Records
---
Amino acid sequence: TQLLEQSPQFLSIQEGENLTVYCNSSSVFSSLQWYRQEPGEGPVLLVTVVTGGEVKKLKRLTFQFGDARKDSSLHITAAQPGDTGLYLCAPRVDSARQLTFGSGTQLTVLP
Amino acid sequence: DAEITQSPRHKITETGRQVTLACHQTWNHNNMFWYRQDLGHGLRLIHYSYGVHDTNKGEVSDGYSVSRSNTEDLPLTLESAASSQTSVYFCASSGTSGSAGTDTQYFGPGTRLTVL
C-alpha cells in the first residue's frame, strides 16, 4: 500500500497571497490528478499530469509533476475567495482505473 | 447533459438495518466507484465496477456490497448498518480513454448517512 501525504492539511490565507500545496509519496506513479471539492459537492477534476517534470497551468493555478514522478505541487497565485475548497491529489500506479486519494489540503481564502 | 446522481441525499437509519444508496449515471461509462469520506481520511474506495456484472473490493469494503446489473446503476448496500459507517458517501464514474490511467472521474453530489 502506497503512503501518500498531502501538506499542509489546513491553510488559511488572505486574498491576494500566493500559496503552494504538496502531494508526496515514496512510490512512482504513472499519472497524477488534482481535484477540488467545494462544501456539499463532489470533487471536480482540475488537471492530469503524466510526464515527469511536467508543468501545467490553469489560469492562476500551476501544477507540477516531480521529475521522478513521486510527488506533485499546486501553486496558486493571487488567491481569491473562490479558490476556497479541499484540494485532493490522486495518483495512479500502473495505469489502474481506480484512484487512491490523499487526505487533502483544506484551503480557506479570506476576503 | 450527462450527469451522475445519488439518492437519497441525506439518510438517518438505526444500527442493524439494511440500507441501500443509489447511484445513477447517464454518461454511459463502464467504470463506477463508491467512496466514503471522513474527516482526516480523505476519500477511501469501498467497491468498484468495470462493467456489467463486474464488481471489485476496494480499501474499506467490509460491511458493504454492490451489484452491477446494467451500465447506468451501481447501488451500494450496507447489510447491517453500524455507527462506524456514519459518513458521506460519493459515487463516481469514468470512461476508458485511449491514454493509460488518465480517465476523469465524475462525482455525484454525495449522500450523508447517519447511523444511530
---
Amino acid sequence: EVKLEESGGGLVQPGGSMKLSCVASGFTFSSYWMSWVRQSPEKGLEWVAEIRLKSDNYATHYAESVKGKFTISRDDSKSRLYLQMNSLRAEDTGIYYCTKTARASFAYWGQGTLVTVSA
Amino acid sequence: DIVMTQSPSSLTVTAGEKVTMSCKSSQSLLNSGNQKNYLTWYQQKPGQPPKLLIYWASTRESGVPDRFTGSGSGTDFTLTISSVQAEDLAVYYCQNDYSYPRTFGGGTKLEIK
C-alpha cells in the first residue's frame, strides 16, 4: 500500500523559512516522479513543484509563483521528499500535499501538512 | 498557462439521480502522438485529500465504481455519475495533465439531498 506522510508544517512569520518533509512507503520511491501540491480556500488546488528521477538528473519544475523561493529535493536512500520554502508570504498559507506520479501526475496523495504564514 | 473552468460550481441531487459536470480547458489537452487526452479527475471528500478518479479523460482508476464515467476530448470534458450515492458527497476537480504548469479547475461541489 502506498503511503505518503508529510511533516514540518506550522506557523511561520512573513519572510521566514520552513522545510517540509514527506516520507514514502509501499513502493520503490526512487522510481517515481514526485510533486508538492497545495490547497487554500483562496486559490484552490495549486501545483507547486515536481522532481524527476536520478536518471533525469533530478530535473525539477516549479510553479511561477514559487520559482526562486521554493526548492524541491529528494533523498532516494531515505524515501524522502522535501520542500524548502523561503521568503514566505501570507499567500503561501495552505495545506501542502506530497504526491506521487503514476498514471497521472498526482495519483497518490498524503494527508497534508498545514503551513500558516502570519505575524 | 492552461485555464481549467468547471461548471456548475455546485449542485444538489437526490440519491439515485444521474449527474453530469463539465470541465473546459483553454487549450487542447489532446496529445496528437498517442491520441490521449491528458485530463484528470479527482474526488475530494470532506476532510480528506483529493483522490484520483479518472485519468486520460476516460480511464477509471482501479477500484473506482463504474458509475463514474469520464468523457470528452480536446477542450471539453464531462464527468458523469450514473446513479449518485450518499458517499459521493464531495468536490470534484479536473486537472490539466498535458503541460506545465499543471493546473486545476475550481471544482464542482456535489451535495446530496
---
Amino acid sequence: GDSVTQMEGPVTLSEEAFLTINCTYTATGYPSLFWYVQYPGEGLQLLLKATKADDKGSNKGFEATYRKETTSFHLEKGSVQVSDSAVYFCALPNTGNQFYFGTGTSLTVIP
Amino acid sequence: ETGVTQSPTHLIKTRGQQVTLRCSSQSGHNTVSWYQQALGQGPQFIFQYYREEENGRGNFPPRFSGLQFPNYSSELNVNALELDDSALYLCASSLESPSYTEQFFGPGTRLTVL
C-alpha cells in the first residue's frame, strides 16, 4: 500500500546551518506530495506541496522537489533559524484524499 | 475566514468510559477527516466524512465512530476507552475534489486515559 518513510530524528542544528530531511514514498500512480510542520503544542500546518514530478514546492525558505525517479521528496533549507524548531512530517494522499504521514522528524535549532 | 476549531482542548477520562470530541470545519469545506497522533508518532487516519456519510476508514476498531452534521461540523466518539487511546486527536477539513487537495488541521484535542 501507499506509504512514506522519513528520516529518523531528532535533528539538532546550529542557527544558519543547512537542513535536509529525507522522505521517500511508495505509491500507485503519481500523487501530490506534502510537507507539514507541527510547532510545539499546535496542530499541523501545511509547509509546502508539489503536485507532479519535477515540481518544486517552496515556502518560508524551505524547498522540496518531487523526484519520480528516486521516489523522494526531501525537505531542504539553506539557513535554519531558531524559529524553525518543530516537527516536520512528509505526507501523501491516497485516492480518497486520506493522508498517509511519516513518523515525523523533530528539529531543534540552537542559537 | 474561520479556521478549523476543535473542542475540548484537553480531556481526561478513565478506562472504559466514553468520549465525544468535536470539530468545526473551515468555512466552505465539506469534508472532515479525523486522525489519531500518539506521542512521538505521525498522525494515523481514523476516518473521513463527506456529505454526512463515512467516506473511508483506517485501521481502527468499531468503537471509534463519528458523525457529520449538515453544517459540515463533525464528532468523533470513542467507546470503552483503553489506555492506548491516549493521544492527540486531530481534525482536518478539506474540499472534496477529484484531485488531491490540502487538508487544514485544527489544533487538536489531547485525550488522556487513566
---
Amino acid sequence: ILNVEQSPQSLHVQEGDSTNFTCSFPSSNFYALHWYRWETAKSPEALFVMTLNGDEKKKGRISATLNTKEGYSYLYIKGSQPEDSATYLCAFPSSNTGKLIFGQGTTLQVKP
Amino acid sequence: DAEITQSPRHKITETGRQVTLACHQTWNHNNMFWYRQDLGHGLRLIHYSYGVQDTNKGEVSDGYSVSRSNTEDLPLTLESAASSQTSVYFCASSRGLVDTQYFGPGTRLTVL
C-alpha cells in the first residue's frame, strides 16, 4: 500500500516569516511528485510536478525540492503573506494505475 | 479557454433519491476522476476513467457509479443517496497518467 505523508499537519506563522514543510513518499517506482495548493472553499490548484531527483521548481515566493532516492520533497514559502494561507497537498501517482495518492496536507495559516 | 466545470454547484436531496452530478472538461483529456472531500480524510478517490467506455473503482466507490460515453463528460451517480454521502465532490482531469490533474470548482451535496 502506497503511503504519502506530510508534516506538519498544520502551521501558524506571522506575515513575513519563511516556512517549509515536508512530503514523504515511497522511493521505489518513482514517476512524479505533485504539489497542489488548496484554498478554503476553492478547488485544488496545481503548483508543481516534479520528476527528476534533485529537481528544484520555483513559482514566485514558493519553491520545492525533490529527493527521489530518500523519498521526500520540501515545499518552501519565502516571506509568507496572508494570501498564502491554504492547505498544501502533495500527491504521488501509483505506478501501475496512475492514480494520485494524496497526502493529508499541511494547512498553513499566515497571520497579518 | 479550456476548462473543467461541474454542475450543480450546490444540491440538497433526500435519503434514497438518485442524484447525478455532472462533470465536463474541454481539454480533450483522456483521464477523468471523481473525488470526495471529507474532514480528516482529505481527498478520496471514488471512480476514475482512462477513456471512453472505461471506468474503474476508487477507494470509496460503494453507492456510486460513473459512465463515460464521450471524452468530455464523466457524470457521477449516487444510486440511492445516504446521509453519509453528504460531502463536497470534485471532478478532475489529466492528459497523461502522471500529469497534473486539473480540478473543477466542486459540488456541495447535502443528503437529508
